[in-house]
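Re: the 420-residue chain
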Amino acid sequence: MDNDDPLRPTTSPLHSFKQLAEWEPGNDPFNVSHVPLKQRPGEPVWAARAAGGQKRGIKDVIVCHDMAGGYTEDRYPLGTLNGPSTFYTIQYWQYVDIFICTSPPTLPFSPTSFTNTYTSTLSDFSHARIAPPPPGWTAAAHRNGVKVLGTVIAEGEEGTWETLRMVYGPAYDPMRGVTPECFDPYFAEKLVSLAKYYGFEGYLINMESPVPSPRHAWALVEFLDYLTMRIKEDVPGGLIIWYDALTIEGKVEWQDRLSNLNKPFYTSTSGLFTNYTWPAHFPHLSTHLTPHPHTIYTGIDVWGRNTFGGGGRNVHKALRVIEEAGTGVALFAPGWNYEGVPKGNGGWEGNERRFWCDVGERGCMAVPNGETGECMSTSEDWSDLGCIKTYIPERLSGTSTSFYTDFDRGYGTSYYINGQ
C-alpha cells in the first residue's frame, strides 16, 4: 500500500484508561491476528537434556522488543512501499517462549480513528498506556508456538492517577478524596476483551508511578489477581507478567529480584520480569522466595546499560548466572543487533546469527566508545565467547505431521504469489 495513502490501516495504542473505556471490539479488522497459538510438541528439550546428564538450560524465556523509538514498517498491517526494508524481525523463535511488544507508535486518538485504524499522522514515540501488539508480530510468534503480550504502562504523576483509575474503575475521581473499599473489575474485563479481540495472550503490567499509600498497592494486588484469573479463563494460554518497579509500600523502587516488597504482585500474576541492574547473587536470592523459580524472568538489557555481564555479545555471561540459579530470563531489546551495531559483511542477519546461535559468525567487530575510546561492554570478549544457544536450548515447533516453510524470512522489497 502507498505510504502516502491517508487511509492505510495502522496499528495504534490507547493513551489512557478513558480511551479504553470508549473502545469496543469489532471495528478494527486489519489489526486482528487470526493465527492461533501453535502448541509446541513433544518432551521439553530441557527435560531431555537433564535426563542425558546435561545441564537443562534455561527453561522459560521472554523476549521484550523495543527499538527505533517505535515500530517502523511493522505498524502497517498491509505492509508499505518503503524501498529497502528497515524491518527488524526475530529469526530465532526456537529460543523464545513469550514475546512482549513494548514499542508501539503513538497516534492521535479518537474513538473512531482508533477503531477504524485510519490515520495519516504519526507523532514521536512515547510509552503508550495500553498497547496491543501489531498483528504481524502476533502471527509470526504464534506460528512458532510463542505467546504474545501487549503492555500496560504507567509513568510519571499522570501515571499515578491512571493506575488508581485502572484499579477503582472509570467513575474514580481523585479530586473527590473518596477511596473505594475495594477494586472495580471494569478495566480488567476491558483488558481481557482487548486481548481476545486482537488475538494475543495477555499483558506485561509495568507500573512505574507511585501510589499514595500501601492501601492502594494492596487494592492493585487484588485487581491483578482478578485480571490474571479472567485472562486464563477467557484466553487460551493467557498470562499476566508483572514488571519489577512498584513495591507493596506504594513506592517505585526497583528490586532487581523477587523480594518481599514485590512478591505480592508476583503471587497474584503469572510471573515477575525483574529490572536489569542485578548483581551476581540476586538470581539465587529470587529462588529462595518461590517454589517456581522459572517464573522469575531475570532481566537482561541487551544494550548493556548497567546490566550484569555487559549485554550485547556478552549476554551469555548473565545467562550463565541465571542458569545456575534456575530462574527464567527476560531479554530486553535484542533489536540492538539491528540498530545498535554496524551491519558488517553479513548485514544485520550476521549480527543476529552471532547473538543467538553462532559464535563463529563474525557479525560486527568491537565498537569503540566515542567518549573514552575503549570498547563498549556489548563488544566481543575474546577470552569468554558465547551466545544465546550456549544456555538456552532450542524449543521444538514443527513435527513430522506439522511443518511448513516457504523460506520467507518476513521482510524484503517484493511480494510474491505462486512464485510471481
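The CA atoms of residues 275 and 395 lie 25 Å apart.
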